[in-house]
Amino acid sequence: MTPTGDTGRRPEILFDGPDEAPLTLVLAHGAGGPMDSGFLTTVARGVAERGFRVARFEFPYMHARRLGAKRGAPDREPVLREAWLATIQKLGGGGRVAVGGKSMGGRIASMVADEARVRGLVCFGYPFHPPGQPERLRTAHLAALSTPALILQGERDPFGTREDVAGYTLAPAIRIHWIQAGDHSFKPPAKSGRTEAGNVQEAIAAAAEFLKGL
Predict the structure, then answer these.
(1) What confidence score (pLDDT) does residue 11 get?
(2) What is the pLDDT of residue 7?
(3) For 62, phi and psi rounded to 5 degrees?
(4) DSSP state, residue 136
(5) Distance between CA atoms of 161 and 118, rounded to whole angstroms?
(6) What span, in angstroms and rounded, lies between the C-alpha atoms of 40 and 44?
């Protein structure tokens, strides 16, 4: 299975928004979806429409799938971290960018944010723990994070609900914006009266407002 879109013809980095924007938001994909997934495409275009430049890239394992490799597990953490650091440098260094992404992409971004001295961090659905395994926390580094950060999290996210996160120790630099009734991709149940599209647009607006303050 290869990612959606023009597969092998996709550039190494996808850009949206004005080249002259004062800040570039760099986004990485989640464990299962490519950089041109519907979710990331909507987010990138929405943030770009608000005046920011947005760059999307893929980790090595996902790029290999695009070129025809068999579907397999994501790269190990050191490889993912190195891919993030290399991309930040390619785009001019931490002082020129904010970083983030969907799920795993945002988690790895949070692990390199301080090291790369980026201007900010925006996570769209942070995987605080694997679904059904609340004891396997991925929060240790978040207690000392100094980079200004915004986590956009669905209240019903199985990777970390509002009730779960209330018990975590998070750095003062981190702000969480809760998406009402949303799951890991912000989709709400029909009975909530909310829509997935509306929740995603709320997340985009909150992210853009955060970026304006960096």
Answers:
(1) 77
(2) 41
(3) -75, -35
(4) S
(5) 27
(6) 6
| Closest listed residue to residue 119, CA positions, set 170, 169, 80, 173 | 173
Dihedral over alpha carbons 171, 109, 25, 75 (to 10 degrees): -160
The neighbouring-strand residues paired with 121 are 99, 149
pLDDT at 10: 63
User: Are 59 and 79 in contact, with CB atoms under 8 Å apart?
Assistant: yes
Can you list the pairs that 62-69 forms with residues at least 24 positions away whose Cβ atoms lie under 8 Å?
62/3, 62/29, 62/34, 62/35, 63/12, 65/1, 65/2, 65/3, 65/34, 66/2, 66/3, 66/7, 66/8, 66/10, 66/34, 67/7, 67/8, 68/2, 68/8
Average pLDDT of adjacent 10-residue blocks, the chain of 214 residues: 41 94 97 96 98 98 92 94 98 97 98 98 98 97 98 98 97 98 97 97 98 98
CATH superfamily of 7-212: Alpha/Beta hydrolase fold, catalytic domain (3.40.50.1820)
Q: What is the pLDDT of residue 156?
A: 98
| Close Cβ partners of 113 (under 8 Å, ≥ 6 residues apart) | 99, 121, 145, 147, 149
Strand pairing category for 13-16 and 149-154: unpaired
